[in-house]
Amino acid sequence: MRKFKDGETITVEPWRSRAFPVIKDLMVDRGAYDKIMQAGGFVSVNTGGVPDANAIPIPKPVADEAMDAASCIGCGACAAACKNGSAMLFVSAKVSQLALLPQGKIEAAARAKAMVAKMDELGFGNCTNTGACAAECPKSVSLANIARLNREFLSAKFKD
Amino acid sequence: MAKKEEIMEAAKETAKKVATKVAQKAVDVAEAALDAAAEVVKEATTPIITPEMAKIPAGPLELKWTNYKNHQKLVNPANKRRLDVIVVGTGLAGASAAASLAEMGFNVLNFCIQDSPRRAHSIAAQGGINAAKNYQNDGDSVYRLYYDTIKGGDYRAREANVYRLAEVSNNIIDQCVAQGVPFAREYGGLLDNRSFGGAQVSRTFYAKGQTGQQLLLGAYSALSRQIGKGKVKMYTRYEMLDIVLVADENGEKRARGIIARNLVTGRIERFFAHAVVVGSGGYGNTFFLSTNAMASNGSAAMQMYRHGALFANPCYAQIHPTCIPKHGDFQSKLTLMSESLRNDGRIWVPKKLEDAKRLQAGEIKGRDIPEEDRDYYLERRYPAFGNLVPRDVASRAAKERCDKGYGVNNTGLAVFLDFSDAIQRLGKDVVAQKYGNLFQMYEKIVDENPYENPMMIFPAIHYTMGGIWVDYELQTTVKGLFCIGEANFSDHGANRLGASALMQGLADGYFVLPYTIQNYLSDQIGVPRMSTDLPEFAEAEKAVQDKIDKLMAIQGKRSVDSIHKELGLIMWDFVGMGRTAEGLKEGIKKIDAIKKEFWTNVYIPGEANSLNNELEKALRLADFIEIGRLMAVDALHREESCGGHFREEYQTPEGEALRQDDKFAYVGCWKYMGEDAEPQLIKEPLDYEFTERKTRNYKN
């Protein structure tokens, strides 16, 4: 805000995306993102009975890349900035994080398919690689994640 | 003759004086005796909570939890399906508990006030999470983590609970890694650690400066999986407004449900469950300005308290030393800079008062002051721990310097946190890799580059160690009502060490409650699901509705926030970092006046039966006022300094906290006695069996 001059106009509007209905004023319902996560944004482990944390060594560059993808805060700016209302950056961040890590690799194919299917079902648009999402992302989640999602998704489909 | 008379007169006068003096002395003695007698009577009539009542298992410290698990009652899988559990809150404690309970087979109803479970305030934790893995081979062990935690808490926590916490800390790291939490790693692929305040080993696991976020997303993903499976029914944007108790066949009241308000429609709804678990966080926002999220509140705790749960140690609030200083009157929250910054940052103020004055006037910047004119006061006062002393110690030291006039910003209420040494030693890139996102955050808020000019920081309210009293099973004094995470009082004593909040939240949710709740639920398998049409539910709903109607009808002249700000200032001035008996009494009077002002002059626009943020805030403020008073009452009664509670009357000549172990080595629990009645004190003595109480020494 300190970069604005006195008298300048600031336009404020609610997130604009079909899948985020407005509740009131600037409030929108971003529950669609939760639903995508519920479709597959996890590693299927129960509490307890897991191996020692250092039993799964992960190369630092891989861990760092997963961390960058994981820094997504699920704010919805990507879908709101996209002219197609696509949630690809959000979905790809989670798919990437878990596909990169050995813990998540086991379910990677099923996850990519389930999350993309849910995303489509909830009315998010398709990705046309305009990159508006990454430009607006407050956590600098990179477009490379979308490429990885496409790769994961395609290879999962080929396996079918 | 005249002389004789004079002598007589003088003698009479003297006799009178002596007699008065003697009489006065007798009165004094009698009064003192009466006082002492009253004290004895009070002492004798103060109810005591015994270890048996707190359900602390027998046996040596390291076997208590194992013994408990070996002998507790379990619920078989077929019966788990027939039992419902309400979990309020989706932070680290709530989400991990809800997910774990659902995985085990219970039906879970999970509530949160945010628009998504992932927005709970745990997300904001930056620095890390402790565990006794000893991956660094620096001599760490479960016992050492236990000892550091109980010492850091100034020996005011329960031994058995703290040991259990240290014990399960390792399971937490394993669990989170299995979930895909991207903890920082070494080049060899193994996990990296950093050190935190109050410890001499590196045992803190971290994920950049977003550890809380990554851990919460781990718990959230486990929760999401169970929501997807239908084992958890998730209610977002719902605020619990009351707990419903129903008496069993023996007349004992048990928690059987909640009344919650749908924050979007304003509708008040009823929910039943066989047990209620509350993980609603702390009450730091009583101070208005804190590092807590705007929505964090203490209302759930107050509802439990009003139904007979005890409020334990309300005066133990943590003031975090490294927050971005307040910059204006319209500010609504404060931002924390992670304690991990103290690993490499050095804290200082100018040695010369005139330099401080020029900094305050904005004539010079921190980097303009030469090395020899800087006072690294933490390194000076505490050579052994230096910049990594516990939070309470670091906060008081900052206040001491600023009170003396050495503050470094325009308000005189800030100290420097300087990275120039670390940048020289490690290079800018390494520093950026470790703390990059924190530096970026600082620059965004303050508009100053911390790589070039030292950061400015000041203490702010951050965490509340006090909370609802729970026994070893995390059950409150109300049957079937459990309390987990920051909302309970159990593990941190009078002061919490850094990176221990995440540990406690997840310990409670993943590894403690899912066990202990079964000990309660195993008796409940014969209890059928109850209708929410029962009179108990109807009455509770009516009470909630009446309270809302009363608030809406006031239509006074002041906004909720303006009253809350006033309360916050009183709390900071009278119940803040340095407390005195006189100040606390004054504070209580002022809080009572605020309460009156609130209930006669608050203005809530809009309608109750729709989305209404002001009404939400007003309901929370009504409870903050009560909590604020309770904090002051507790602080007044605790005539000692320990951890986050510093009474100026009780300090050593060097200004360090002075505990009174012979009088106050107990948990101060407060029982609700009615809306305008004074609460009753109940004590849980902390008779240590395994640990020797020492003066906390971070000097050598």
Radius of gyration of chain A: 17 Å
How would a textbook summarize the main sheet of chain B?
5 strands, parallel
The N- and C-terminal alpha carbons of chain B lie at a distance of 77 Å
The structural class of chain B is alpha+beta
Percent helix among the residues of chain B? 40-55%
Shape of chain A: globular
Radius of gyration of chain B: 27 Å
In the sheet with the most strands of chain A, the strands line up as 1-2
Which whole number gives the mean pLDDT of chain B? 94
What is the subunit organization of this protein? heterodimer
Give the class-level CATH name of one domain in chain B.
Mainly Alpha
Could you say what the CATH architecture of one domain in chain B is? Up-down Bundle
pLDDT under 50 segments of chain B (min length 5)? none
What's a concise summary of this model?
The complex is a heterodimer of chains A (160) and B (700). Chain A has 160 residues and is mostly helical.
